[in-house]
Amino acid sequence: MMVLLLTVGIVFQLSESRVTCRNDEGNEVDWYILYKLPLGDCSGLSYLYMDESTNGWKLSRNTIDSSSGTLANTLEPLLDFYDRQTEGFGYILYNDQLEKKAVSPSFGHSKGLQLMYIHPYAYDHFIPKTFHMELQNVAQMTGYPTEAPWFSVEGLTSLGGNYFSSFAKYTRFHDDLYSGLIVKYMPESLYVKGWGNKGGSVLLMSNCSTRIPHHVYNVKKVQLWKGLR
Ligand SMILES: *[C@@H]1O[C@H](CO)[C@@H](O)[C@H](O)[C@H]1NC(C)=O
């Protein structure tokens, strides 16, 4: 089964080697996924963590706003930059306010283009002049695709040699991300847990149409960690 997750913020830089994913202990990891738990059983600040070594989700002892958790450890170069204007460092912090969107777990120079498609709301950024102009445009929200195709699929290889696929679509794609794009690249059916449309009545439906190569199933409930839903 495949679980797709959305992301809210990405930081990147292009020349400093110190920027890397770090776990709760501050050690370098090739990739990780954080899932912040909703308000409910917890404060709304607890999070689940997964990387290659954890064999699935584990509940972090930290809260997402902790100064010693995965997020703080990974964002340390950014905090350093705020303090010391580290040279050759650039970043975009963005929020995807769109309902459904592709994930780019990490990206380098050219992969910044992927961001054009999702037209993110960049609430903070600093792009040095030596960086690609496209990144500058994306940060200022003036960069977006001007001709078809209205989607982009990119392969990303991590330092550890893991291969990721990044899917992005622009509003003019006018089709669903999962049934209209991702499923075409999948060897089997896709199980999707979307955010739904909060407060509204429009929820993503399963799609078993013969017009798409595999089925897209709408997952209604995921049990991520013992009692937590
Ligand atoms: C299934 O997905 C395809 C591609 O997104 C779309 O054209 C079609 O309308 C969908 N069918 C249903 C029943 O939702």
UniProtKB/TrEMBL annotation:
GO molecular-function terms, A-Z: deoxyribonuclease II activity
Keywords: Apoptosis, Developmental protein, Disulfide bond, Endonuclease, Glycoprotein, Hydrolase, Lysosome, Nuclease, Signal
Alphabetical list of InterPro entries matching this protein: DNase_II
EC number: 3.1.22.1
A Pfam family recorded for this sequence: DNase_II
Signal peptide: 1-17
GO cellular-component term (any): lysosome
Reactions listed under catalytic activity: Endonucleolytic cleavage to nucleoside 3'-phosphates and 3'-phosphooligonucleotide end-products
GO BP annotations, alphabetical order: apoptotic DNA fragmentation
Uppermost EC category: hydrolase
Function noted in UniProt: Hydrolyzes DNA under acidic conditions with a preference for double-stranded DNA. Plays a major role in the clearance of nucleic acids generated through apoptosis, hence preventing autoinflammation. Necessary for proper fetal development and for definitive erythropoiesis in fetal liver and bone marrow, where it degrades nuclear DNA expelled from erythroid precursor cells.
PANTHER family documented for this protein: DEOXYRIBONUCLEASE II, DEOXYRIBONUCLEASE-2-ALPHA
Membership in a protein family: Belongs to the DNase II family.
Protein name per Swiss-Prot or TrEMBL: Deoxyribonuclease-2-alpha
Species: Dissostichus eleginoides
